Task: inverse folding
């Protein structure tokens, strides 16, 4: 693993994989606050251990395991060992996962992951191979490997997501509060004012909101602001203007919260999007050399073993093949 204390991250897109975000990172001190994603999270741990709060308790994922989070599911993230963790992740849109599930599985209803951690080195290797294919500009391989990885994960750890419960008075109040906060993202009311407008006490609103969305209103608001900030950054709006538009006091305020949820600063995030649009190389953090060195450690161990064996055998004149997905 990299030298102690060294952190690197790159969050980007590949135009040939629409609806999919990509991340490669190594974190030591990073702590992701409670947040959600609009897409699925499929994170393959290469080294170290990640711990994240999910579904009422902490879970951990080490080398060869995957952290799997369904859309709109609150979770956190931090290092589980002093040296941190290194991983590669893909974030496919719900529609893409549903399409793959319909074609390759018997899941009925909205597909999702049953458990937040799956120990499956083969699936983890597939995720890293998707990122390697993207690095090489191999669109056919990237798309194929992504679909194979998602299919495998759904077959091993997939099922229909539970239907939302029939709305109670509390969930109706929470939904109304959320609508107000979405409308007043940049200038939200206080908890007391919001509760009074809805005709309930502040604590009743707090309990209802937590129950419906897994976090208090102020945490949900920060999460929603970062989501909207991402859309504005994707559209080319300058970070300083984005900060004002979504309700952060200044660009540094945006950067602090953005980094604690997305994993990279807003400026770096936006430059990666611009590189995709401009057809540029898109190498920001980490460097291409670092990427190749790190990815070389993530192949399927079976392939590594066969390669090592082939090197020790006399050449037969027949080229050796690589492992198939």
Result:
């Amino acid at each position: 693993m990299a030298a102690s204390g060294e952190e690197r991250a790159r969050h980007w897109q590949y135009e040939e994989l629409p609806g999919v975000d990509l991340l490669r990172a190594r974190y030591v001190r990073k702590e992701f606050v409670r947040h959600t994603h609009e897409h699925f999270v499929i994170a393959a741990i290469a080294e170290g251990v990640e711990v994240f709060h999910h579904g009422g308790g902490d879970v951990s994922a080490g080398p060869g395991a995957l952290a799997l989070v369904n859309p709109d599911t609150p979770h956190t993230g931090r290092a589980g060992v002093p040296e941190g963790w290194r991983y590669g992740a893909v974030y496919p849109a719900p529609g893409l996962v549903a399409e793959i599930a319909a074609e390759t599985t018997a899941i009925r209803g909205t597909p999702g992951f049953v458990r937040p951690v799956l120990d499956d080195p083969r699936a983890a290797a597939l995720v890293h191979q998707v990122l390697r294919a993207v690095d090489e500009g191999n669109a056919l391989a990237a798309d194929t490997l992504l679909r194979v990885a998602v299919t495998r994960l759904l077959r091993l750890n997939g099922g229909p997501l539970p239907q939302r419960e029939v709305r109670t008075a509390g969930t109706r109040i929470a939904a109304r509060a959320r609508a107000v906060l979405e409308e007043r993202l940049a200038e939200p009311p206080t908890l007391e004012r919001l509760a009074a407008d809805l005709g309930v006490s502040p604590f009743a609103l707090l309990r209802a909101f937590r129950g419906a969305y897994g976090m208090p209103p102020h945490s949900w608001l920060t999460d929603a602001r970062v989501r909207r900030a991402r859309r504005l950054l994707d559209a080319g709006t300058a970070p300083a203007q984005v900060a004002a538009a979504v309700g952060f006091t200044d660009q540094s305020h945006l950067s602090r919260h953005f980094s604690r949820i997305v994993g990279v600063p807003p400026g770096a995030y936006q430059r990666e999007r611009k590189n995709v649009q401009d057809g540029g190389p898109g190498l920001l953090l980490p460097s291409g050399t670092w990427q190749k060195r790190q990815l070389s450690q993530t192949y399927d161990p079976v392939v590594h073993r066969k390669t090592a064996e082939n090197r020790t055998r006399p050449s037969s004149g027949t080229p050796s093949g690589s492992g198939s997905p």
Residues 280-325 have pLDDT under 50 and may be disordered. The first helix runs from residue 94 to 104.
